[in-house]
Amino acid sequence: MTPPPARHRRTAAGGGTPAHNLLRRGSVRRAQAITTYGVGSLIAVDQESFIVSGLDEADQSWDDDESPKIHERRLARVLGVDYFRLPPASDDTSRDGLRVRRFPLMHSCPECTELQRHGDFNPPAGRSVCGLCEVDLVPSRFVVACESGHLGEFPYWQWVHRSTDRDATSIGQCGGTLQLRSSGRTSSLRSILVSCTCGQTPEVSMEGSFRRNALKDLGLKCRGPRPWLGTSATAKECGLPLRTLQRGSSSVWQPVLKSALSIPPWSSGRADPLAEHWDALRQYDRREHVEIYLKGAFKGGACPVPLDEVMTLLAAEREEDPEGEAAPTFDHRYRALRNKEYERLRAGNDESEHSRDEQFVCETPLGDQSVLDPLGVTGPMLVKKLREVRALKAFTRLIDAESTTDSKEMPLSEHPLRWLPAMEVRGEGVFLRLDEDRLGPWEKIVAVAARVERIRTAHQRVLEQRADDPSRALPSPATPRMVLLHTLAHVLINEWSLEAGYPAASLRERLYAADDMAGVLVYTATSDSAGSLGGLVAQGEPELLDRTVRSAIHRAEWCSSDPLCMETEAAPSAGRTNLAACHACVMLPETSCEHNNVLLDRALLVGTPDDPHVGFFANILES
Q1: Which long-range contacts link 17-26 to residues 24+ away (Cβ below 8 Å)?
Q2: 66 half-sphere exposure, CB direction, 13 A CA radius
């Protein structure tokens, strides 16, 4: 898959003339089009910078040949689409790719120091060089964004002239041209100097441009630019404050990813031909009405799915509707999706009972599970086959995508879509639960509740700071069992990365923490050679799992950053919403964690020096 305006021309079947001539510039992995370089993100290719285009262009690149459809009905229903598409392939035979647009447009020439739009340098076709000096142009290091997801050019002219005039037509009316140079004295913003040849203003540095109110003091507000949608997009001034960002900052683009496991009865793939008919089928309760609809929908041919199976799928879909909700919110529907996964992981799905096409195989281990009783661990399951579909729902800027609301999410297109970009991962995993008889009394320990309340308060304050209306901020999910399960998943992933040969980045957690759920699934999250080799499933046998948990708990007892790590306090002012957790002990690569490495506390596993019984697994350390 290739990001930039990167397409070789297509020829007709008989070798006709190409229809268009878009240059191919670099490549990225297919999965990165969802997680790193999705719609609206910035991508650097050699000396140039581009923004990945939206999905509703007149000639957009996600076609049927190189962006095949994939189906996961449970997730599609929650996200309000019919199906998903894989990103364009990135191999050498690919004719297509991801469309991109040049952004930012402001460039500077290191030779003549001029700072202006890229086209004003008169570069040769297909190159990004100064037409006068013939040296590579440097894209602007700075962009501006607002919390609604808009992205624009840094206002250099207003910064130099300290103008409160927001009229874009006034730019350049002083008669001069902007210049940018570096004094070379330091690597700080103070050494980046911008001036105008009009001579009416002194040369100014970029120091102070990152202050929260720096652009607000100039009278500048967001005008709603959406450069990833091109010139056809209608910009509406949103009026929110602008923030200066470095072009490569992680705050410029954060994906809003939603995922689901394929579980029975949807995991056989038999329902895929009906993907675009489910919304209509849900309107019918009676079997004869469903049969009449299918005959009309598949004129000239029989429905590829037997009627009995269609009725079973409809019943399964209605079961996931949250009870008592006339118009369930997205969060309620997404939570119901997780509840069904938890039920299926507990119940299992034996391989011997299904065909080879079954995408979910979950079996009970053969060993004696009673060896896990002293640990408070129960119900291990060997997930020998699983399929996860991970979809890009939207993206955010400046705010954490995990704690955002719909109003802060920027959609991938200007018009509603019936599909979303997604990746599917096939792998394996181990599922385990905590014993409710031990978990319930442990949650009621005063010291445990006090530690988690400090985490919850810090996290809630962060969520309120990021919300338009603090009173409507999302509630923090921090509870004793959620923080315990989250931290346990992290130490297990770290342990298996040492014992089973899996890189930590190739494993991923999936938490099931609620009043009626206390489980965790650790599974392979990559589609490369570390995908499904059987090594992770083998770790779920009771004797091996017992040894793994004990080793992980003993390893978590000490951290190379202790005593500072164990004695740290949650500090919402610094964005720290963990207690005893750091990169030297329990934190993971961000791709492995569902919650961006927050809501962690290994003291809930092993206890503290002053109060060992805070730890759920304290008995392991005492024995």
Answers
A1: 20/59, 22/99, 23/126, 24/97, 25/50, 25/100, 26/2
A2: 21
Peptide bond into 265 cis (omega under 30): yes
Instruction: Report pLDDT digits (tens) over 310-355.
Output: 888 888 888 777 655 555 677 788 888 899 999 999 999 887 766 6
Q: Please answer whether residues 56 and 414 qualify as being in contact, where contact means their C-beta atoms are separated by less than 8 angstroms.
A: yes
Q: What end-to-end distance do the CA atoms of the chain give, in Å?
A: 54
DSSP letter (8 states) at residue 273: G
Among the listed residues 529, 547, 550, the one whose alpha carbon sits nearest the alpha carbon of residue 538: 547
**DSSP-derived secondary structure for 412-445:** SSSS--SEEEEEEEEEEEEEEEE-HHHHHHHHT-
* Helix, strand counts (H, E) of the chain: 15, 20
558 vs 565: CA distance, rounded Å: 9
Half-sphere exposure of 356 (CA within 13 A, CB side): 0
Q: What is the pLDDT of residues 209-255, one digit of tens each?
A: 999 889 988 889 998 899 998 866 666 778 889 999 999 998 899 99
> Would you put residue 92 in left (φ > 0), alpha (ψ -120 to 50) or beta?
alpha
Residues 429-474 have pLDDT tens digits of 999 999 999 999 999 999 999 999 999 999 888 888 776 667 777 7
- The answer to whether residue 14 scores a pLDDT higher than 60 is no
- Category of 119 on φ-ψ map: left (φ > 0), alpha (ψ -120 to 50) or beta: alpha
Q: What does pTM read for this prediction?
A: 0.85
- Identity of the amino acid at 391: A
* Distance between CA atoms of residues 74 and 418, nearest Å: 15
Query: Smallest Cα–Cα separation from 431: which of 349, 505, 501, 552?
Result: 349
Give the full edge-to-edge strand order of the sheet including 48-52. Answer: 42-45, 48-52, 100-102
> DSSP 3-state assignment of 181?
strand
Are residues 279 and 184 in contact, defined by beta-carbon separation less than 8 angstroms?
no
60/98 Cα distance (integer angstroms): 8
Asked whether 519 and 345 are in contact (CB, 8 A), the reply is yes
Taking residue 331's Cβ as centre, other Cβ atoms within 10 Å add up to: 12
Residue 370 has pLDDT above 90, yes or no: yes
Rounded Cα gap, residues 83 and 77, in angstroms: 9
